[in-house]
Every structure is written in C-alpha cells, then in structure tokens.
Amino acid sequence: MNIFNFHTHDTAAHDAIISASPSCFNPQPGLLYSIGIHSWNTNEDFQQEWDLMETFCYHQQVVAIGETGLDKLRGAPLDIQIELFKHHIALAEHVKKPLIVHCVRAWQELITTWRITAPHQVSLAVHGFRGNANTALQLVKEGFYLSFGENFNTEALAATPHDRILIENDDSNTEITSVAESAAQALALPIEQVKALANDNAHNFISNIV
Ligand SMILES: [Zn+2]
C-alpha cells in the first residue's frame, strides 16, 4: 500500500493516513487512520473521547496515534495540553504505534516532554511543519520526522535529511500532488523521487524505524 499523503482530514483519502478524532473514527475498507485528541479540542471535556481512544487504538487500520500536541495559540492552558500529550505518548508506547504531533510555538515544551518520557520505542512526526531550518534540524536531532504541507519554509525542507521528510495536505483542498510538486522544486528532485521517498518514510514511520 502507498502512503504519499502522510496526514489528511479527507475521510475518503486513499494512499494516505486519515486523521480522525476517536468519536469520528469510522473505518472504511482499505483506508488507514490515525486517531487522537487535537490540542484545539482540549477546552472541552475530553474524557469520553479518551475512553474511545483506549478502545480504538488497537484497531488494525489505526496505524498511528494523533494528531495531538501542543499549541500556544489555541486550546486549553499548556500544562493541560502537556498532560494529555503525555497520555498519548504512554498509549502509543503501549500499543507500539507512532505519534503524529501538531505543534505551534511550543518546540521547547515538545522536546522536553519527549525527553522526560524517554526511552521510546515509537517514532514521532511533527505534521504541518512550517518552522525554519534551525528548528527543523533541532527536531531531526531529537529523531523526529517532519511532514510538510501546503505552506512550508523552503530552506527548512532543503535542510531536512531525506529520510525524515513526509508530505501531507492536512485540511486544505490542495491536492497532495501539488504539495509533492512544491517539495520537488524546493529539493531540486524529480517529483517521482519525492513521492517515493515520502512513501518509504511513511512506511518506516509506521514501523517505528527511528
Ligand atoms: Zn491535521
């Protein structure tokens, strides 16, 4: 199975990992999913979602945990988001499925939380990465994969080692092929090569090859 599109909210996407909240998880034959509680939804009571999370995380078509994460601009106060992130990490380790993380202006907190919950047997990917080249290299040093979407920093993508690069269209209407085209331009590589490496990396990611 191909996985060109690392992260999408298109519930009918093939060759993709479809991100869903536990209560919206409705697996269709042949499709792949990640489930998690988004940091944007941490202002609400998420206990019920978490109960479903603990049930669905074992599902065969759920290949990753997330998206979850840390966002300083939206959602509950950061300490609550960090607590919930730690729960996702523990669950991911328990079911041996990697983590997909959304992070806005909380890089240090992300790194610190990951370090204090080490050692890890699962991979972590930061999706929708728009940071600069320095941040990219800092995250790669932690062992993270980086997923690039519709908008990204060209130097950051060019600075990222090829075995860490993923591509996605997230919740935008942009086709994954056009994200791959922009990435190919930034990397000065043929588009077919970018698609192949994104696919290989996504497979390594779900196999927890760090
Ligand atoms: Zn998303």
What distinguishing features does this structure have?
210 residues; TIM Barrel; eight-stranded parallel β-sheet; 7 helices; 8 strands; binds zinc ion
Give a written overview of the molecule:
The model has no long low-confidence stretch (mean pLDDT 96). This protein has helices spanning 47-56, 78-95, 107-116, 133-141, 154-159, 176-187, 191-206, and strands spanning 5-8, 16-20, 32-35, 62-71, 99-104, 124-126, 145-148, 165-167. With 210 residues, the protein is an alpha/beta fold. It starts with a strand and ends with a helix. It has an 8-stranded parallel β-sheet with strand order 1-2-3-4-5-6-7-8. The longest helix is centred in the middle third of the chain and has 18 residues, at 78-95. It has one domain (5-206): TIM Barrel (Alpha-Beta Barrel), CATH 3.20.20.140. It has 7 helices and 8 strands. Strand 7, helix 5 and strand 8 form a beta-alpha-beta unit. The structure holds zinc ion (ZN).
- Overall pLDDT confidence: 96
| Distance between the ends | 21 Å
Q: Give the class from helix and strand content and strand pairing.
A: alpha/beta
| Hetero ligands | zinc ion
**CATH architecture level-2 label:** Alpha-Beta Barrel
The overall strand count is 8
CATH topology: TIM Barrel
> How large is the radius of gyration?
16 Å
Number of individual domains: 1
Query: Would you state the CATH class?
Result: Alpha Beta
* Share in β-strands: 15-25%
- Separate helix tally: 7
Spans with pLDDT under 50 lasting ≥5 residues? Answer: none
User: Major sheet: size, sense and barrel closure?
Assistant: 8 strands, parallel
Order of helices and strands: EEEHEHEHEHEHEHH
User: Major sheet: order of its strands?
Assistant: 1-2-3-4-5-6-7-8
Share in helix:
25-40%
CATH H-level superfamily title:
Metal-dependent hydrolases
Approximate shape: globular
